């Protein structure tokens, strides 16, 4: 059977060009990170005399990259756990039950997708300071895990689209509301939950503004703040800045490469009805 080739549209061409440019930038950044600082500054576009992993070794020995890395991992994991727990329960309640102000509550979460945390940073800072959580991971986790809007929206649409027979059959078998949610509904939503975890992990991993405001000590700072430290005096630490940028970007790209299909399936499952 002959398969007709799909025509290349303008939008797909733009996306391909953008993707190729992004890959080129990452490859060039990786190449430069393998060169010594003297060559980067003197022969930026020239052929290298040597290539080595010395910059990456310095990041761990002198820059203590592993500390920043573990801080970011801790914040991402705990924040995702809180987001999944809260958003799934909220979305299940909105999607499966009828009550007053249901549409208003859903609009409230939709509005949350339109307003960034920067708009309310002053009252948030005052609240966190009054709680005694300044310069702690708990402050970052509380703020970032409060961003439930996207997760609630996707999961609400998914639960609304599930056949009522699934819910009714669980009730017939004698399952309570909590058992129905944990053993039936939540496992069915696993593709959407997986997509939410990947998408939000990227947002939390790359979060710069919130840690910049609330973290002061080097022992608690995250990877984006470490990169900022090296870019402040770029002429002196350009090699470390390049290496830190590469090593902080690669894990996210690998996750997207291996799980891109599952991400798209999950977003489609939680997409808006046609």
TrEMBL record:
Q: What are the TM regions of this chain, as residue ranges?
A: 12-31, 68-94, 106-128, 140-159, 234-259
Domain ABC transmembrane type-1 residue range list: 69-259
**One cellular component term from this protein's GO annotations in UniProt:** plasma membrane
Localization recorded for this chain is:
Cell membrane
How this chain sits in the membrane, per its record, is: Multi-pass membrane protein
Q: Which GO terms describe its biological process?
A: transmembrane transport
- The highest taxon in the source lineage is Bacteria
Q: What is the similarity comment for this entry?
A: Belongs to the binding-protein-dependent transport system permease family.
**Which protein, by its recorded name, is this?**
Sugar ABC transporter permease
Q: Which organism is it from?
A: Paenibacillus nasutitermitis
């Amino acid at each position: 059977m002959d398969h007709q080739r799909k025509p290349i549209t303008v939008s797909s061409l733009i996306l391909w060009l953008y993707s190729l440019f992004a890959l080129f930038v990452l490859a060039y950044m990786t190449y430069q990170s393998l060169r010594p600082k003297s060559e980067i500054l003197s022969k930026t576009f020239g052929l290298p005399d040597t290539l080595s992993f010395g910059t990456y070794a310095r990041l761990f020995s002198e820059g203590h990259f592993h500390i920043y890395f573990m801080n970011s991992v801790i914040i991402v994991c705990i924040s995702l756990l809180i987001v999944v727990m809260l958003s799934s329960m909220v979305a299940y309640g909105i999607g499966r039950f009828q009550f007053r102000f249901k549409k208003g509550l859903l609009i409230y979460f939709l509005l949350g997708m339109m307003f960034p945390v920067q708009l309310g940073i002053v009252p948030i800072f005052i609240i966190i300071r009054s709680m005694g959580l300044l310069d702690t991971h708990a402050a970052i986790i509380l703020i970032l895990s409060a961003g439930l809007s996207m997760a609630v929206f996707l999961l609400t649409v998914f639960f609304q689209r599930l056949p009522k027979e699934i819910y009714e059959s669980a009730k017939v078998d004698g399952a309570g509301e909590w058992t129905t949610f944990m053993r039936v509904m939540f496992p069915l939503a696993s593709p959407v939950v997986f997509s939410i975890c990947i998408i939000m992990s990227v947002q939390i991993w790359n979060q710069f503004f919130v840690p910049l405001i609330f973290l002061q000590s080097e022992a608690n700072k995250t990877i984006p703040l470490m990169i900022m430290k090296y870019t402040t005096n770029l002429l002196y630490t350009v090699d470390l800045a390049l290496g830190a940028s590469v090593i902080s970007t690669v894990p996210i790209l690998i996750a997207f490469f291996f799980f891109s299909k599952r991400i798209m399936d999950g977003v489609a499952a939680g997409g808006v009805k046609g």
